[in-house]
Amino acid sequence: MPRTLLPGQRAQLWVLTLDTGARRLVAESSDLLFEAPNWTPDGVSLLVNGDGCLFRVAVDGRTPLTPVDLGAIPAINNDHVLSPDGATIYVSCGDGSLRAIELVSARSRIVSNDHGPDFRHYLHGVSPDGLTLAYIGMRISTDGSVVTNVFTVPSAGGPDNQLTDDAFADDGANFSADGSTVFFNSERAATLPGHAQLFGLTLAGRAFTQLTDDERVNWFPQPSPDGRHLAYVSFPPGTLGHPADVTVQLRLLGVGGGEPRTLATVFGGQGTMNVPSWSPDGSQLAFVEYVQPH
């Protein structure tokens, strides 16, 4: 079931300018819980999901949230990415599949492969050349236990490439700006349950690099278009998973690691910045905040 707003709560879509830290409100709703902004390559619009659907809004805030025709597909969640040319939206559907939809025609096709009813796909990234998708594959056993791993699959359809094969909790897989590395969050270095940190995995050589190592729980690395930075959502210490309705920090980190910079503190978490949210020129980030009633 799609998420809904709490009584009196409002969803707000913001754009943050990195150089100044200034925030500008783009859209707001007290009816629709929208999530996970994607920025169109022309820099004109943002796409968000809500109530199992997709919506478009102008970055300048001069148009309302407008439904995007996705054709006859199952409800989508907050794991969606745009192709580099902006012509196709790739989405994770409620039936566990990945689908590609042409935005002009609403024609759709299934991209993912059938791994059985206990397997679900959660999409987070597309390669810079548009040829490959990065996703998290989740297998749910009959006893309720869950195993997640990092995969890629051709955007045109084809065999999966499994990049990890272990019991560590992984999520948020996304390509570097040059396509050579997949960034993701993982508990592979955790000493406490849920203590996810950010990692990079080179596709040539399959070498892991840990990028964050602090007391906070770090999720959803989003590489900047120039390849210099990662933006991510940082949850409070002790957080399990990536829950909604908590106070989180949006942080910026150099791709080689180092000391992160906090860009904003917002009430959100799940839905705030699950997918690529950089402006095409890398000067701004889009995110969603969920304002509590007073």
Automatic annotation (TrEMBL):
Stored Gene3D superfamilies: TolB, C-terminal domain
Cited Pfam families: PD40
InterPro entries in alphabetical order: 6-blade_b-propeller_TolB-like (IPR011042), WD40 (IPR011659)
Family (UniProt): Belongs to the TolB family.
UniProt xrefs under PANTHER family: PROTEIN TOLB, PROTEIN TOLB HOMOLOG
Official protein name in the record: Biopolymer transporter Tol
Organism: Cryobacterium melibiosiphilum
Organism lineage string: Bacteria, Bacillati, Actinomycetota, Actinomycetes, Micrococcales
